[in-house]
Amino acid sequence: MVAFEEAQTRVLAAVPAPGVETVLLSQAPGRVLADQIRSPIDLPSFDNSAMDGYAVRAADVALAKLTSPARLRLAGKVAAGEVFMGELAAGTCVRLFTGSPLPPGADAVVMQEDTHIDSAMPGDVMILTPASLGENVRVRGGDVKQGAMLAEAGAVLSPGRIGLLAAAGFGSLRVGRRPVVGLVATGSELIEPGMPLAPGRIYESNRAALSALMERVGAVPKTFPLVADTLDGTGQALSEAFNQCDAVVTSGGVSVGEMDFLKPALEQISGRLEFWKVAMKPGRPFAFGRYQGKLLFGLPGNPVSALVTFLLLVRPALLRWQGATDVSLPAHPGVLAEALANPGERRHFMRVKVDPTGNVQLAGLQASHVLSSLAAANGLVDVPPQTTLAAGSAVTVFRWEC
Ligand code: AMP
Ligand code: MG
Fold first, then answer.
1. 252 alpha carbon to ligand 2 midpoint, in Å?
2. Rounded to 10 degrees, what is the CA torsion of 10, 11, 13, 19?
């Protein structure tokens, strides 16, 4: 049995260097950026107006008041996307809209609401308030300076980051290639959901949940047909999946029973078992192996064990495969609303529900076949062996909805 950290380290060490491909910006959210990116331009790239109003010289309107407005001659109009030809002369103003470039010579914008045009004198604008230098002006480089870091290599691209990169002019990006991961469920008792149930049989539930978790981290799941508990059938299913995928995730058949064929099947097809059994709960029988440079993650069949080992041991590997720097589950502080007791010898990753204030409760029964508490949970708390964490304790919650 290997320690949990050792299992994590060994799995990550086995992950191949990321392949890189170029994708359109629209395909980039959730992908892992391959290169550090600096801005080729200032943002904004020119001084522009934050308001609909009038470009002025602040000195011309320094004494403006509602009762004695400054009168400026209207020298032109600049719609967004246009530029003003020439320089703003003293005593004049230019009509601007949000985003219009500031004409040279102007140093402030008076918003439309602080102006008045007398219909008898449509060529003049009455300015009703003074403007300070730079007022309502979005200055060139005020958001991002040319050369500034826009995104780090290894970052998972969020919609906000994509927006920033689009604003800096990037139409495509180099990102880590997404691993294609085969999903193989073993167990003669398993029936496809949607088919009639039979005595002694159960519906297969791991592939659907694991597939959803894989998609969230950018991997490409490929679901294979159910596999009965025979040595040859399991070996054939493994080699079929390895032929089509970069890695294979199996569920079931990794325990000590005589119907557990995953490890002998891997050997039968000349794969190699790297380690088996991890000191964690749920998920002890987790197996990790290799086949022709590809990786095998052998998850226990119990649905909770399968999902928890996936989150803690497979998910990091799939992210690293794409070049991600941060591969752990997002950690959030929380406070226990009830005690969490682990009398056992292995670390127990308990399913919890954390609310927006950080209040942490058990999500339900913790046995490894209990799916209802898995569905209710939004995080895990790592309770060390032979430890009771008292109500009121500060804990780290590993979130996994995201
Ligand atoms: P195993 O790891 O094959 O010994 O399976 C442990 C338990 O999980 C047994 O109760 C199995 O019936 C159940 N199980 C195994 N695989 C699945 C699956 N894909 N979906 C739902 N339950 C499963
Ligand atoms: Mg089984």
1. 5
2. 170
Element of type H or E holding 17: none
205 lines ligand 1 (CB under 6 A): yes
Q: Which residue has the tokens 């495969």?
A: 321
Model confidence over 7-19: pLDDT tens digits?
Answer: 999 999 999 999 9
Residues 206-250: tens digit of each pLDDT: 999 999 999 999 999 999 999 999 999 999 999 999 999 999 999
Partners of 291 in the beta sheet?
A: 294
pTM of the model: 0.94
Say yes or no: CB of residue 185 within 6 Å of ligand 1. yes
For residue 165, the one-letter residue type is L
What residue has token string 């996307």?
81
Q: Residue 24 pairs with which residues in a beta bridge?
A: 172
Instruction: Using the predicted structure, report yes or no on whether residue 402 has a pLDDT greater than 50.
Output: no
* Ligand 1 pocket member 303 (CB < 6 A): yes
Can you tell me which atom of ligand 1 is nearest the CA of 205? 20
Which ligand is closest to the CA of 190, given by its number? 1
Interatomic CA distance for residues 87 and 94, integer angstroms: 10
Q: Residue 216: in which H helix or E strand, if any?
A: helix 206-216
- Cis peptide bond N-terminal to 282, omega within 30: yes
